[in-house]
Each structure stands twice: as structure tokens, then as C-alpha cells.
Specification:
300 residues
Length: 300
């Protein structure tokens, strides 16, 4: 990983990690689609306000930018967020973030297939196998990281895997088609379409019921909207554009540290020996995956 990328990667990890904790807390008060839709609407309004008050920001007009922003907003934001937060109903924030560390493995596989200048070597193939085996061990043992399991652990694992597949596509798509556009404009269009999609999903599946939401739930929602949905996604897009798909995916290494400690301290989550073995296998695999730095396309 490029040294200059570390502060940006760490900041995004902090935003996403703390947002997972806030989201796990909120699952007891919100229906998942309603929580996601509301988060996306709040975040999208931040972009509108910035355009209205900033003398340097211009509204996006490029049709290609709108197309790619819409695609990312619908698939890689609204749908992915529903998968990840949905998984928090069945898995702890620490375990969910640990599974999300598989992102670099998924990304390098996608890069092998779709980016001709990024190729896997034997060590990286072994790393991918090792990392995947860590997730399989935890899934096989039915680990949830929760004191009281809902009994639907495999559904939670499936949701995280679906989010990882979309995340790998997102990284490659941004690197191939979006890196020449202004990051802020892409992020704003992405968020507007994500908000619209989130509203449609919530309205179709569960409606909008806020009767169980307390002040603490609204506070967690507002924090997640600003930290993980506005700042996190915008800077994550910038990271992918500037440093490349593989380097951007390194965010996933830091998130489990934040969520595991925070989940235990704040949410009374657990960390079992089997999860420790799974983490060891995943991290060992990812070290192998990253042993030979993937060549990145030079930014223009």
C-alpha cells in the first residue's frame, strides 16, 4: 500500500467501523430498509446543501457521470447497504466487519478477470484460498458473535457475501470508468440515486414505521448518515480513484479492530476462539494476497 494512502484508508475505516456499530445498535429500533432509506436521504441532502452554499461546486451535467453515478448508487450503495445492515440482524458488528475483510481477496480476483494489468501470482492464489477458508470455518461452526443467536447465521453470511461480490464489482467499475470524473460530483449523483432506491425498497417491503425509534436511535441514525454514508463513501470513492482498487480495499483490514473492540464495549458482543482462528486465517490469506503489490493505473 502506498504510504501516502494510509491516512485516507484509516479515516474511511474509522467511519465505516463506527457506522457498523451504530447500525447494529439501530437494528433493534428500525426495520432495516427504513433505516437505510432514511440514512441515504439525510446523506443526499448534505450534498444538495453543499452545492447550494459552495461557490466552487458546480452541479454535475455530464450524462456519462450521471449514468455511472446512478449505477453505483442503485447497486453498490442502496442494495449493498441493505445486505450489510440486514446481516447485522444475525451477526455481530465485529464478525460482519471481519467477513468484510475478504474484500481485498474478492477485488484481486475481479482485477484478474477485468483489469489486464493486474495479475494474480501463485502466492496470491494461496492467500485467497486461505482467507476464504477462514470464513468457511466460522460459517461451518455457526459463529454469530452474539450472546443470543437468532439461529439464522447462514442468512447473515449470505448477505455479507452478496455485499462483497457487489463491492468487488464496484471497485473495478470505478477504476475503469469513473476515475476521470470529479469525485464529489460522482458521490453526489450516487447518493441521490441511492436515496431514491432506498425509499422504493423500504416502501415496497416494510413501509415507514418510526413508532419504536427512541432518541438514541435517531442519534445513531444521524451519526451513521454523516460518518458512514456521506464522508465514508465520498472519501472511499476518492481513494479508489487516486490509489487504485486493491489499495482502497485495504480499508477492510482496519475496520474489524474498531468494530470488535467497540462491539464488545458498547453492544455486549462476543469474540470466540473459533472467530479468532477465522480471523487468523483471513488475515494470513490477505497478507499473502497483498505480498506483491498490484500495479495500479496511473491517475490522470
Amino acid at each position: 500500500m502506498q504510504r501516502e494512502a494510509f491516512p485516507y484508508i484509516s479515516f474511511v475505516a474509522l467511519m465505516f467501523g463506527s457506522t457498523l456499530i451504530a447500525s447494529r445498535f439501530s437494528t433493534g429500533q428500525f426495520a432495516t430498509p427504513t433505516y437505510i432509506a432514511t440514512r441515504l436521504v439525510i446523506a443526499s441532502l448534505f450534498f444538495v446543501c453543499i452545492y447550494l452554499v459552495s461557490p466552487t461546486r458546480t452541479w454535475p451535467t455530464d450524462p456519462k457521470l450521471w449514468f455511472h453515478g446512478a449505477l453505483l448508487g442503485i447497486i453498490a450503495t442502496a442494495i449493498t447497504m441493505n445486505f450489510i445492515v440486514g446481516a447485522l440482524n444475525f451477526l455481530s458488528s465485529g464478525l460482519t466487519s471481519l467477513l468484510l475483510t475478504l474484500n481485498p481477496a474478492f477485488v484481486v480476483i475481479a482485477a484478474q478477470l477485468f483489469l489486464p494489468d493486474e495479475r494474480l501470482n501463485v502466492r496470491q492464489v494461496l492467500g485467497v484460498i486461505c482467507a476464504m477458508s477462514g470464513a468457511l470455518v466460522m460459517a461451518w461452526r455457526g459463529e454469530t458473535g452474539l450472546a443470543l443467536s437468532s439461529g439464522n447465521a447462514l442468512l447473515g453470511y449470505g448477505m455479507v457475501i452478496a455485499a462483497l461480490l457487489i463491492g468487488a464489482w464496484q471497485n473495478i467499475h470505478i477504476r475503469k470508468y469513473v476515475r476521470h470524473f470529479d469525485a464529489f460530483q460522482v458521490a453526489s449523483v450516487r447518493m441521490w440515486f441511492a436515496a431514491i432506491t432506498g425509499i422504493i425498497i423500504s416502501w415496497t417491503l416494510v413501509g415507514f414505521d418510526f413508532s419504536r425509534v427512541e432518541l438514541s436511535g435517531y442519534a445513531a441514525l444521524l451519526y451513521a448518515s454523516v460518518a458512514g454514508t456521506f464522508l465514508g463513501i465520498m472519501i472511499s470513492l476518492y481513494n479508489t480513484q487516486r490509489f487504485g482498487a486493491t489499495t482502497s480495499a485495504m480499508t477492510s483490514y482496519i475496520i474489524p479492530i474498531i468494530t470488535t473492540v467497540g462491539g464488545i464495549l458498547i453492544l455486549d458482543e462476543t469474540f470466540t476462539p473459533v472467530m479468532g482462528v477465522g480471523m487468523l486465517l483471513i488475515f494470513t490469506g490477505l497478507v499473502l494476497v497483498q505480498a506483491k503489490k498490484q500495479p495500479a493505473l496511473a491517475p490522470r
